[in-house]
Task: structure prediction
Amino acid sequence: MIQTLEWTDSGVRFIDQTKLPTEETYVTCKTYEQVADVIRNMVVRGAPAIGVAAAMGIALGVQNSKAESVGELKQEFDRICDVIGKTRPTAVNLFWAIRRMQEKFERVRVRAVPQIKQALVEEAQRMHAEDIAANQAMGRHGATLMPSSGSVLTHCNAGALATCGYGTALGVIRAAVEEGKKIHVYADETRPFLQGSRLTAWELMKDGIPTTVISDNMAGEMMKQGKIGAIVVGADRIAANGDVANKIGTYTVAVLAKEHGIPFYVAAPFSTIDLETSDGAGIPIEQRNSREVTHIAGKQMVPDGVDVENPAFDVTPAKYVSAIITERGIARAPYEESLQKLAEQPLALGS
Ligand code: MRU
Result:
């Protein structure tokens, strides 16, 4: 199994996603500042993985603290949360994770400093395990929507590498394959960071799931030729009305899917659903360094001085989304009602 990130005795260990697919190397962060850097630099990326990385970064910072009183520890904890919270703005899982660690701190603050540290480390580890269980549950729900035989298109990487294991969109595909469905995956390359060609193709190859990489501008033609039976992608933040922020280019795929009558599914855990944001207009979109667009593997592809834009995400309006697959079940339009209903439902991940 791919270990995207894990808590170890010597620090938080990450597979370095900037080096894949050609090098499988790992980095171990020993301080929370290093964890903030690996989130910012996309050594670890993907909304659920970012969330758990944030929690582990906070736990690491607290564990390293020299604070002698609970008050001092709390001050340091707040500073750590602040630094981690400024790394990437779009994936709401980051803020969900910080809030969950804050709530944990409040619940255990009556204890002594070493016990508080221990409780926060355990909470981060629990979030890691819960993420995998959520993905497996999502897979079971989502597999029912996959064709028994045919091709499924995905954009970016919403797989084991974007989570603590198994994946959201790729978890749905994995579960369908485990059930005996004959799925062939079309992976959009996903410029500029190439999460599709570098990461999705890498992990599906490891699992022996047949995969074809296409450049992003080929997706429409593949749909027109009848090669795509369904589309499944992940999400970085889903607003209460079902608008979906995901990797730049997702919106284009969703509009093309509608034109060709192809179902467009989004798979995401509840930690990605932001019921406090009413619609997509309220979702902050990260703008990344223009160098990701102007250079490929260190080689300049754009003349000096040309204006470049690099929004890392776009928002797909809910009207293009056929269903949202979560660990609690499948939501369909109107999403204000279906997401709220699932949020209120008791969660039994084992079922
Ligand atoms: O910029 P990234 O690589 O962090 O963006 C990742 C995506 O957009 C994923 O599709 C999303 O986080 C879902 S991951 C399960």
In short: DSSP finds eleven helices and 16 strands in the chain. Residues 45-48, 91, 156, 158, 162-163, 168, 195, 234-236, 246-247, 312 surround MRU (CB under 6 Å). The first strand starts at residue 5 and ends at 8. The mean pLDDT is 97.
